[in-house]
Design a protein that fits this description.
This protein is an alpha/beta fold. The protein contains 14 helices and 17 strands. Helix content is 32%, strand content 18%. The protein has a six-stranded mixed β-sheet. Helix 6 links the parallel strand 5 and strand 6.
Length: 445
């Protein structure tokens, strides 16, 4: 951003800070205003072990570290080549807003702060920054500039990396080499863009076809075999690719995206159980996103009773695998899985109850990852110890989190930032395999 650009004033909503505690560093040379109402709301989030609690504490510490009375009088510099930040005390409700908006609501107090600043003379543009679309609409309704916090947004979801591509009219000798167990150099493919690490390929000519993956360690394209994993057989090319990446010890980070019924969680769990002797424990977790503003602490009953409704989809996938036949050691699949649950070798839990654990030699499956923020995804991955494999599954178009969308959720962010890394593989599952009825509903309804 050039210094000749008009200096703007950005007024921050509470949810921006709870999304990214380092947000003060993202506005370059512009002025930042934090309404006192925001500090009051952050006070309610200081205690706790979840991501929003961390962000609340971290932001308040960083604001305090800037120090000085100037933070309430004109502002203090955020840092070198950065603008200023100041805390704005509450002002009288502006007459333009009093008729339509209740003074008692914190959102309206923040709106009033931004609107009052915008009405001051000799001030540049004032922009209310919020991840709450409803508040942004209210701001625009009164003629106030408003925008989402887009620092960690992916650029274009429609062009997001899918993990595979189709190559037509491939020479027969290259396919023959794959079936013979040999690979071939990626440069022998005629492609519009180079292959990236662990990218999957559907190779075809008029007589033959093959599934393959580009291995970054030797620079060769190798065949991907269709194999059954813990009683679960892949039903299409994408599922075959997914199981191949899930069972490869050289790929410690895998993400699977796709709509409901494509088999994301089922495949991840089957792969984990197939490799159970390689790992100390299997964690199967998902984030808790209540449909109201109250978390599970408000629900009656013990913690297991509170979590059961959220964890049921994971148990449903376990049930599918438990219905399979025995795996050659004299016990049924159901008995094996039940024994693992009893011995705590297989743990199904809410993601918030996983935090703080040591992730060494763990096969860690994070379901519904589209409901995580980019910071939460980073936090999980950076906890990975020696011998740990982390798998994120989710549907970026089915988001329950009130302040995330297809561009700002952690799964989209992970796919965009990690594509091409040798330790990472991704595959987007496209075909629903739950039932013909489920597939029809997904397409038409």
């Amino acid at each position: 951003m050039a210094r000749s650009e008009v200096r703007k004033t950005f007024v921050l909503d509470t949810n921006v800070i709870l999304h990214d505690s380092s947000c003060l560093n993202q506005f370059k040379h512009h002025a930042i205003v934090v309404p006192i109402t925001v500090l009051e709301e952050l006070d309610h989030f200081k205690k706790g072990s979840q991501s929003i609690n961390y962000h609340a504490r971290e932001f308040l510490r960083s604001l305090d570290a800037l120090g000085g009375d100037g933070i309430f009088n004109g502002g203090v510099p955020v840092g070198p080549d950065r603008g200023t930040v100041r805390v704005q005390l509450e002002r009288a409700f502006h007459p333009d807003l009093a008729f339509n908006f209740s003074h008692a609501k914190p959102d309206h107090q923040i709106l009033n702060c931004a609107y009052t600043l915008a009405k001051e003379q000799n001030r540049g543009p004032v922009v209310l920054v919020s991840k709450d679309v409803n508040l942004r609409l209210k701001a625009k309704a009164v003629g106030l500039l408003s925008d989402d916090y887009t620092t960690d947004h992916v650029k274009d979801v429609s062009s997001l990396y899918t993990g595979k591509r189709v190559v037509e009219d491939l020479a027969s000798d290259l396919i023959d080499r794959l079936y013979a167990g040999d690979g071939f150099e990626a440069r022998q493919l005629v492609l519009s863009t180079p292959l990236v690490a662990n990218e999957h390929l559907i190779l075809r000519n008029h007589q033959q076809s093959a599934l393959a993956r580009f291995n970054p360690s030797d620079g060769l394209v190798h065949r991907v075999n269709k194999t059954q994993v813990y009683g679960i057989a892949p039903r299409n090319a994408e599922q075959t690719f997914a199981l191949s990446a899930l069972c490869d010890p050289e790929i410690p980070l895998v993400s699977l995206s796709g709509t409901a019924g494509t088999g994301k969680t089922l495949l991840a769990l089957a792969a984990a159980l197939e490799q159970r002797k390689r790992y100390r424990q299997i964690y199967l977790a998902r984030p808790i996103v209540p449909l109201s503003n109250k978390d599970i602490g408000y629900l009656p009953g013990e913690i297991k009773a509170k979590l059961d409704p959220y964890m049921q989809p994971l148990y449903d996938n376990l049930g599918v695998i438990m219905s399979q036949h025995g795996n050659g050691d004299g016990r049924s699949t159901s008995q094996q899985i039940q024994q693992m649950l009893d011995d705590d070798k297989l743990t199904v839990s809410a993601l918030s109850y996983i935090r703080g654990r040591s992730l060494n030699r763990i096969f860690f499956i994070v379901d519904e990852a589209q409901n995580l923020t980019p910071h939460e995804v980073k936090t999980i991955i950076t906890r990975a110890g020696e011998g740990t494999k982390i798998v994120f599954t989710g549907d970026i178009f089915q988001i329950d989190h009130p302040y995330l969308d297809t561009q700002s959720n952690g799964l989209s962010y992970l796919i965009e930032k990690m594509q091409g890394q040798p330790l990472y593989a991704h595959i987007n599952l496209e075909k629903g395999e739950r039932s013909e009825l489920a597939q029809l509903a997904s397409q038409l309804l």
